[in-house]
Amino acid sequence: MDILLKASHLSHAFDYPLFEDISLSLSSEESIAVLGVSGSGKSTLLHILSTLLPPQKGKVELFGQDIYAVDEESRLKIRRYKVGIVFQSHYLFKGFSALENIEVAALLAKTSIDTQLLEAFGIAHVLHKRVTQLSGGEQQRVSIARVMTKRPKLIFADEPTGNLDRETAYEVMEEIFKYVKKRASGLFLVTHDEKLAERCSHRFLLEERRLKPLH
Ligand SMILES: Nc1ncnc2c1ncn2[C@@H]1O[C@H](COP(=O)(O)OP(=O)(O)OP(=O)(O)O)[C@@H](O)[C@H]1O
Ligand SMILES: [Mg+2]
């Protein structure tokens, strides 16, 4: 098993300290779930781990590279080709159709579209629709499909199924877990759903500025 992500001694504060001295690692075929109350810093941690925000203290290595020590171009390359980020609020191109949104991702990452995944996500029949004509849950599934189309080596997902009913949420997550195994990829998942967290290889609670392991 390869170590995909290694974070050491991360600390970060905005108006108040969010977390201090957090270390964690993630190997291929593994998943980490992070739970915690609103405002505890889960999204901030995800941004730091996923190339988007340099931590005030500490180091993040993805695929053996110190992502905040390398130059901007190398960091962008890692983000574009190896990392897939599902944001808490999704960012689809509104003037485009669902399919066009997914095609853009395939084009940028030089991959092809996995039609089976679109079927499994239950969005194959709405692909021709404009983003604004989709339901909130459909938009969320399209945005996850777009990220998966990049074939990321590491997936960062920030409450990816928050807009979905339980059954659909589990179906979508099942596909993501399958993908992680099949592609020897890794998943860092922020969720409020303890049952979903249990499907992950490791679970943590972000609380009192620490990342506490849950069993
Ligand atoms: N760019 C920023 N500038 C200033 N403060 C910020 C910034 N981003 C986040 N914060 C603050 O940091 C704290 C943690 O935010 P974060 O989004 O990481 O929480 P969270 O655990 O993801 O919460 P939620 O469950 O509501 O999504 C909040 O108090 C937030 O206001
Ligand atoms: Mg958040």
Please provide a written account of the structure.
- It is a single chain.
- The chain has helices spanning 42-49, 72-81, 98-109, 115-120, 136-149, 166-182, 194-198, and strands at 3-13, 17-27, 31-35, 57-62, 65-66, 83-86, 154-158, 186-190, 202-207, 210-214.
- The chain has 215 residues and is α/β, with parallel strands linked by helices.
- It has one domain (3-214): P-loop containing nucleotide triphosphate hydrolases (Rossmann fold), CATH 3.40.50.
- Helix 6 links the parallel strand 7 (154-158) and strand 8 (186-190).
- Strands 6-7-8-3-9-10 form a 6-stranded mixed β-sheet, sandwiched between helices. Strands 2-1-4-5 form a 4-stranded antiparallel β-sheet, with helices on one face.
- The protein is built from 7 helices and 10 strands.
- Helix 3 runs parallel beside helix 5.
- The longest helix has 17 residues, at 166-182.
- Magnesium ion binds next to helix 1.
Offer a quick outline of the entry.
The protein has helices at residues 42-49, 72-81, 98-109, 115-120, 136-149, 166-182, 194-198; strands at 3-13, 17-27, 31-35, 57-62, 65-66, 83-86, 154-158, 186-190, 202-207, 210-214. By secondary structure, the chain is α/β, with parallel strands linked by helices.
